[in-house]
TrEMBL record:
Listed name of the protein: ATPase
Source organism superkingdom: Bacteria
A Pfam family matched in the record: AAA_21
Organism: Catenuloplanes nepalensis
InterPro entries in the record: ATPase_AAA_core (IPR003959), P-loop_NTPase (IPR027417), RecF-like (IPR014555)
Keywords, in A-Z order: DNA damage, SOS response
Residues covered by the ATPase AAA-type core domain: 23-327
Keyword Coiled coil among record annotations: no
Length: 365
């Protein structure tokens, strides 16, 4: 489980360190920095896939993604991201590229990466250290240089096959994010697709019928039916196949003479079913992150959604980023609540002084 998430120099976040719990809900007004915190966590996940540099370049380069507020302390331009929790922690520092004739001048460079053990970076706990192109790996009591250098646009997590680095890479790659589940008329979840066992709902929800059927066959008995009944009393889903192996998802509701198909679902109904498929997965990740899961939902569905989230939080760590204070309230004492505010252009945690944040130490260049 992740206990601490740290971000510095990214968009509206000058310097933010937050504590995470088994279930954490991030709230705040529009523009308070919720999306920045969410995207920072996604950038951390991209590091394990060697995609953080490209992700920042897609945002317009370091100039667009870096701290947007007034200048503070002097020093090099930097975006720093890190986390620590059970076992090892990781921090990465991205900075301006060395001037060159390359046409990829918007790509930031990875200036420093550190993999460490324990809740905070300390010299004795460093397992792997990357400064510029050079990597050092712990061997007993010493850090020894690796034989291979790494390019400035590559993460050591993706490029070096050492035990601790492989474990961290695979750990981060198992994080799961849901933020692009469409419910419009052309949404992938409304299409009929070939059925196949699907323990993990796809990022676009196109395999919804397969995911729900997989939950019914190998998930916790009765949880899906209970979640449907809690949201739509007396209703039930049915999934059938045709001769071509395609799965048809139907919803039977009291008072209707025939079941409804996916093209007839309201946006809210489809959204709730997508959330049920994501949260009741038979293969829970270490970390599951939901960005605005309440979108399109009627207020009456927030309590059933909260029930789904709290159930899932008994199996994996969950972070929810939401505009809906009603959803955060419905999660109640089961969730650690972080309310973000904007003060003088800077994202901060409401009610938390600068010296009350969790302890954190960044690696120096």
């Amino acid at each position: 489980m992740i206990h601490t998430l740290a971000v510095e120099g990214y968009r509206s976040i000058r310097d933010l360190t937050v504590e995470l719990a088994p279930l954490t809900v991030v709230t705040g007004a529009n523009g308070s920095g919720k999306s920045s915190l969410y995207r920072a966590l996604r950038l951390l996940a991209e590091s394990a896939r060697n995609g953080a540099v490209a992700a920042i370049a897609r945002e317009g380069g370091l100039g667009s993604a870096r701290w947007a507020g007034p200048p503070g302390k002097t020093g090099p331009v930097s975006i720093r991201l890190g986390f620590a929790g059970d076992g090892d922690g990781y921090a990465v520092d991205l900075g301006l590229p060395v001037p060159s004739s390359s046409l990829f001048g918007n790509d930031p460079e990875i200036k420093r990466e550190v993999l460490f053990s324990g809740p905070m970076l300390r010299p004795a706990g460093v397992l792997a250290d990357r400064a510029g192109p050079l990597i050092s790996i712990r061997n007993g009591r010493r850090l020894e240089p690796a034989l291979e250098a790494v390019a400035p646009y590559d993460s050591m997590l993706g490029q070096y096959a050492d035990g601790p680095l492989i474990r961290m890479r695979e750990r981060i790659r198992r994080w799961r994010f849901y933020d692009h589940l469409r419910t419009d008329a052309d949404a992938p979840a409304r299409r009929v697709t070939i059925g196949t066992r699907t323990p993990i709902l796809g990022h676009d929800g196109s395999d919804l019928a397969s995911a729900l059927q997989t939950i019914q066959e190998i998930g916790v008995n009765g949880e899906l039916a209970g979640a449907i009944d809690a949201a739509f009393p007396g209703s039930r889903i049915g999934i059938t196949d045709d001769e071509d192996g395609r799965l048809w998802l139907k919803l039977t509701q009291p008072g209707l003479r025939r079941p409804l198909g996916t093209t007839e679902f309201s946006d809210g109904t489809l959204r709730y079913l997508l959330m049920a498929a994501a949260l009741l997965t038979p293969r829970p990740p270490e970390l599951l992150v939901l960005n605005e899961p309440e979108t399109s939902l009627h207020p009456d569905l927030l309590a059933p959604l909260a029930g789904l989230i709290t159930t899932a939080a008994t199996r994996c760590q969950i972070l929810v980023v939401t505009h809906a204070s009603a959803l955060a309230d419905a999660l109640g004492d089961d969730a650690h609540r972080i309310e973000l505010i904007k003060e003088e252009g800077e994202t901060r945690v409401a009610g938390l002084g600068r010296f009350e944040a969790p302890a954190w130490q960044w690696p120096k260049r």
